[in-house]
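We close this part of the discussion by returning to an individual protein. In the encoding step, the backbone of a single protein was reduced to a row of integers, each denoting a local shape. The sequence in question and its structure tokens are set out directly beneath this paragraph.
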Amino acid sequence: MEIRRINTRGSGLRTEIREDAASPWRVAEDPGPLGYRSPFTAGHEADHAARAQVPEGGLALPFQPLSFRDFMFYEQHNIDAAKGFTRQFQPRTHKFGELVEKVTRRTFKPYLPKPLWYKEPIYYMSNAVTFVPSGTPISFPSYSRALDYELEIGFVLNRRLRDADPEQAESAIGAFVLLCDFSARDVQIPEMRSGFGPQKSKHFVSSLSETAVTPEAVLPVWRKLTGSVRINGALVAAPSAEGARYSLGEAIAHASRSEDLLPGELFGTGTLPGGSGMEKGVRLRPGDRLELELPGVGRIRHDIR
């Protein structure tokens, strides 16, 4: 089932559902088709839609995230993004890394995830307040000249968890969305080297697809999904969800250790391999039209300013 919300201004957001792409949209009789009631007031959510410049009759966020934890499921993304970063910002390191890989026939060690990544799912917490829906114009933050996109699978909880096992954790997923974690690349690495993780490089804006999809159609196949990235209509990448080190249940269960997780909390898989411009040597520029898609999950489109 797909879920969307329409901005009706005077009466707030109207929730609509449909069984599949061939079915008509209809107003949801159940106020919580995701399996939970939003913890936010109708007024708060309407104000958020207005700040995201959602017009009358336009599509707002399919749900308002209560929080956002972003995992890193993919070793290959880490390797390729690190190579892309050194190619663009540290050319001497990049050349040295190429030489090391040629001689050793192994991945240059600084490009690999840190040792903890191989032991447990790792994540950082970002700013859930800055999520906007697909269609919102995206501006470069004032302090960056290197805006990048990241195509990810997002999933939201519909029940409370604490000390869950992977099976319990996976059963608490209420819906999936396509997620774009925007990044200011020229700010990101210095912040991460501070020892406190990404801050202004990530917190300025993130986005979700205009629809959410309930889990029965996505859970069995999410590792097999392949998406697309287009800039100004040209295909620049076909990111694949294959190769995830952890399952969704393992990731959520880890986050729930001695910690309450609540309905409405959002998680991301981390960037699918090939899902960021840094990996492909692609840079967003003002005037670009960015389009991300993952069939069966959702689409995101933004004009870059």
User: Anything to note?
Assistant: Helices lie at 42-51, 75-89, 91-104, 166-171, 185-193, 248-255, 277-280. Residues 75-89 form the longest helix (15 residues). The chain has a mean pLDDT of 95. The CA atoms of residues 3 and 17 lie 5 Å apart.
